[in-house]
Amino acid sequence: MKQKHFLLVLAFIAILILAYYLNADHKMETPVPVKGYLDLREWSFEEDGMVSLSGEWAFYFDDFLEPDLDKAHMPKAQYVLLPSNKNTMNQVKPFDENQFYGTMRLVIDLPKNQQIYGLKSDIVLSAYELYINDNFMGSVGQVGTNKATSQPSYKILNSYFQPEQNRVELLYHTSDFYFEDCAITAPQIGLADQIVRESKIGIGRDLFLFGMLLTMGLYHIGLYVIRKKDRGPFYFGVFCLTFGLRLLIVGERILPSTVAFDFTIYSRMAYATVFIGVGALFAFLYFTFNELFPRGYLKGSLYLTILSLVIAFLAPFMYIDLWIIPYAVIGFSLMGYAIFRLIIGVKKGTAFTGWVLVSFICIVLTFLNDFIYEITLSNRASMIPIGMTVFIMTQAYTLSAKFSKAFASVEKLSSEKEALFLEMKHVNANLENIVENRTRDLREALAEMDLMSKTDYLTKLPNRRFMFQKIEALVQSEQDFFVAIADIDKFKIVNDTYGHDKGDVILQDLSERLSKAIGDSGFVGRWGGEEFMMVFYGSDPVRVLRIANVIRESIASKYNISIHSPVTITIGLCAYSEGITLDAVIANADKALYEGKLGGRNQCRLYRL
After folding, report:
1. Which of 98, 197, 233, 406 gives a 20 to 30 Å CA spacing to 126?
2. Which strands make up the sheet holding 188-191, listed edge to edge?
């Protein structure tokens, strides 16, 4: 039954995405502006719909052309490809600075009929004025020739006109002395009722999603207030509320169009809602499936969110724009890791991970689409509504399923006898302490067993098996190192003369001195008998040999009180390299050790290939 429900949700998501693309993509190929001119005389707005004015527009840098300027005296134009960003603008801009002003112009030949047309203008740098056939149609912000005379704004301008002739000239006076992102989206032209319908659909969509997000956000925060032990609903509520606020700021710009706050407030709020919302999403996953996510996942996302908010509220907009790329890299990496952990949860059979995984992948893909759009302005515009719809609906199902399961358990418990109920109540009151104590005991026992399996009982150094594991880890991480075998000189004579008890004391003392001597240069373990293995980090044989000799000399220079004489060691070294096995490296180090023994002991010998 669960699998059937799961397949139904997948089918629903597929239908949503398919319907979105069928509605957006299966249209007749539209004409494209070339060199500031667009021919739409053969275009049927009634049958084929609106036209996006993506293509080459004439741009006159550092010049506000008068609408009634004689076309014979028009200066030379550069041709900017819309949608525009820094990369496309820098290809034609005659200067390096990204603070500039100018005039954007496009001439359109429309079909020969008397129709009322509409033009939807979105982002045209940070401020602009629109003229159609020399008539002023409206402005967004205040254009100027410098920062003091200009004022940015963030609104959509819908303009309506009925041309007397079929030729239309669009003229934008535009400037940007704040963001320096060279962002210009392509305006859309269509019949007046099409523009009106498009605007109403957009506003209706944003308000519908805002209502859904507001309801779900307040509901989940209410659940957290009732049961504060589970913090997952709280962070899901914060996620819903912040993205609900963002929908009113972006999209159809409902909030900026109705409440006249300073433009920088809205801009910083637009960034901040993303940072807070994404951070809340990471926290929701952690607290909902804390058995799947390490504590570092929550800390990393928290630090990322705090740093991003500091930049969003305090840094100039240019630095916020620069921060977006590294933030996206880290953010999408955390999302990818979350998908990986959720897949593990599905394999383990963790409750509800399948539903969360599907909806999370969907919202990550929409985030990725919208991020690419914000950077390039060239792919499909916001798909967040689809991602939000799928994510919230699946979480609503998950929540209802959890409550249904909980209520079923309550009903079952209510039907039990009073004595059993009281007993279970008593057990439940102590269950967490019992589980915690037993878990702690098990952890301590496992930690002790793990330590015993990895260390030598006499010297407390890593044993042979653990040394192999540590060396193999170095090999996997492609780190350079040297293997050294150290042997106590004439140790058999020491054992025969003073006894094995004294020999054990010498081994323990030598182990402690070797560990201190090697320090951060590597690590040491007991190899067997009177032999020790040392591993030195690095690839420089001269440096490693010098360190080994320092260790050897420090051992030989100390008087051993147990036998009233110094103890010396002989060391054989061999470098690890690709193409040679670990066993061969150890064997070569042993050969070098043997050469040192033959050479008189108390020596360091390096095996050379």
Report:
1. 197
2. 51-52, 188-191, 117-121, 157-161
Starting at the edge strand that comes first in sequence, how are the strands of the sheet with 604-606 ordered? 522-528, 531-537, 481-488, 569-575, 604-606
d(CA 35, CA 104): 12
Question: Whole-angstrom Cα distance, residue 211 to residue 503?
Answer: 80
426 falls within a domain: no
Q: State whether 479 and 393 are in the same domain.
A: no
Return the HEC string of 483-530. Answer: EEEEEECCHHHHHHHHCHHHHHHHHHHHHHHHHHHHHHHEEEEEEECC
374 is catalytic: no
| Mean pLDDT within 43-71 | 89
What's the predicted TM-score (pTM) here? Answer: 0.60
Instruction: Look at residue 413 in the predicted model and tell me its pLDDT.
Output: 66
Catalytic residue, from 129, 180, 198, 530: name it: 530
- What's 530's DSSP letter? T
Q: CA 407: distance to chain centroid?
A: 37
Give me the domain span that covers residue 533.
464-606
The residue out of 406, 422, 438 marking a domain boundary is: 406
**pLDDT at residue 253, rounded to an integer:** 81
Give residue for tokens 């949860």: 345
Answer whether residue 383 shows pLDDT above 90.
no
Please name the helix (run of DSSP H) or strand (run of DSSP E) that holds residue 473, with its range, or none: helix 464-476
User: Does residue 584 form part of some domain?
Assistant: yes
**Residue 159 pLDDT:** 94
